[in-house]
Every structure is written in C-alpha cells, then in structure tokens.
Amino acid sequence: MFNLRLFSAAFRYSIPVLLGYLAIGVAFGLLMSDAGYPWTLALLMSVVMYAGAGQYIAVGLFAGGAGLVEAAIVQLVVNARHMAYGITMRKKFNLPGCYKAYLVFALTDETFALLSSLDGEPASPEARAGNILYGGSERERGAFMLYISALDHLYWVGGTLIGAFAGALLPFSFDGIQFALTALFIVLMIEQIMRVKKALPFAVSALAAVLAVVFLPARVSLLSALAASLAVVQIFSAKAPPDKG
C-alpha cells in the first residue's frame, strides 16, 4: 500500500539525483532526436534499458552501424560494475517478488550511492524523517528504497522526454551537445581515479585507446583497446608484490 510519508521523505532524499538526471536525460533525448530517432525510441530505451552511460554509447553504436555482438560486448564491459552493486545490495533488497526484481533492475550508480549511504548514521533530516530507516520496520525500509529507485528512474525518463520533444519540436542548435557523452565519461573517470588512487589502469587504457585509433579500423578499435588494456593491467597486477600491513 502506498505510504505518502515514506514517499515524501524519499523524494526529498533523492533531490540531488533529480537535478543530475534531468540534465543528463535531456541531453540524451536531444542526442536521439539529432540522430533522427523518434521520441518513442528514446522513451523505450530510458524505460527498459535505463543504463545512463550505456544509452549514450548506444547512440554512437547505432550511428556507426555496430553489430549486435559488438554492441552487446561493449555494453557488458561498460555496465559490468553493476554486478558488484547487485552483490553488495542483494541481502538488503528483502522485498518480495517483482519488487525485488525492480530494485535490482533500477540499481544505477546514483541510486546505489543513495541506498548504500543509508547504512551509516543518518546524514540529513530527510533520512531521519519519522524514524523511517532507523526506527521503522523492515517493510518500511524496503518501501523507502523502492520509492527512491522508482523516483530516480522517473527523473531519467522525464529528462529524456523533455529532451526528445524539445529536439523534435523546437529550433535548436545541437552544436556541442555530442560532448555530453565525453563529459559524462570524464566525470566517471575522475571519480574512479579518486576512488582507486592508482595511475596504471588509466594510463594503460589511454595508451591502448590512442594506439587502437591510430593503427586499427574503427569497427574493432574500441573492443581491441578494451581487451588490450584489461590484459596488460591484469599482467602487471599479477606481478605486483602484495601490500604489506
């Protein structure tokens, strides 16, 4: 049964994601419109695929005529981090049936950040509202997580629709909008650099990407760079001495 108190607290708690997802979702909708695809396809991708960076990549794969196998491999590599998210959250998603399945499906980077932060001390009045998380039942906790996941999904779909309709109906210059994908990955890379604090994987990946673009055909350059960088990093990691202490 719908709980307005829980829903209101979940909305306030997810406002940072609202601000980010509307902006990036609008950019995705504009990209789809610029590529000549109907708003219905943009909506379908955001509802069913809901992959953020993966959707941006899909636009480029569509335009480049990538095959199904190539597209599937690229998406698997890009979104492999979600496997770790799911393993981390599997015991916390204690809702029954389709509710649990949706929680798993809707576990994006930002949603994971919100849900995983619920384990610590409540950092905001919204997270403490009505003792929802720290004095309520397991059912209330599960409902709160479900509302957060659904709201984040709604923000992304809403941004996509705004961008797709704006691109189709309004005179709009798309110059520079393609950089949204590059900017998104720069942000993700910076976050990973700050988290991992190891220069080797990023240096190897950059070198592999440059060499692949220069010496290999465009259709195989991305997969070749991914495979080469993963292999080199694994070799160096295996040779590295174990950390002491």
Describe, in plain words, how this protein is organized in 3D:
The chain is built from 13 helices and no strands. The mean pLDDT is 80. It folds into two domains: 4-169, no CATH class; 179-239, no CATH class. The protein has helices spanning 4-13, 15-34, 39-49, 53-63, 68-78, 81-89, 97-105, 109-116, 125-128, 138-169, 179-196, 200-215, 218-239. The chain is mainly α and 245 residues long. The chain is globular and about 60 Å long. α1 (4-13) packs across α10 (138-169) and α2 (15-34) runs parallel beside α10. The longest helix is centred in the middle third of the chain and has 32 residues, at 138-169.
Overall mean pLDDT stands at: 80
Largest sheet: none
Number of strands: 0
SSE-based structural type = mainly alpha
Rg (C-alpha, Å): 20 Å
Overall shape: it is globular
Provide the β-strand percentage band: under 5%
Percentage of residues assigned to helices = over 70%
Succession of helices and strands: HHHHHHHHHHHHH
Total separate domains: 2
Low-confidence runs of at least 5 consecutive residues: none
Question: First CA to last CA: what distance?
Answer: 51 Å
Number of distinct helices: 13
